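Subject: for your reference before the review

Hello V.,

The reviewers asked for a structural picture of the protein, and I figured it would be easier to keep everything in one thread rather than splitting it across files. Below is the amino acid sequence we used in the manuscript, unchanged from the supplementary table.
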Amino acid sequence: MSASRADVIRRVLREEDVEGLITLHGAPANEYDDEARHIAAALFDGVDSSDLRLERVVAIVTEVCNDAFGPFEAAELTIRRRIYHRIAQMILDGLHE
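And here is what came back from the structure prediction:
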């Protein structure tokens, strides 16, 4: 059975651990579950996963992470956008497995 949409997003966020909360600070594996739920809700609000575009996923990941861990200055956000782009691509790849 394939993983649910939220499970895919949770797995990606956990693996990437962009804030270092799990690997550096010993947070539990479910540390990013709230962010995963917010991303999933925003991504799939009236949209089928086959209709998702990378730009939309990047924008949502950026918004959710900025709300949860920011706000970030422009320079920091520029650096993070590359990471969020990678996360978004991993989410899309996981959804289409």
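For the response letter, the relevant points are probably these. The chain has one domain: 5-95. The chain has four helices and no strands.

Happy to draft the paragraph if you're swamped.

O.
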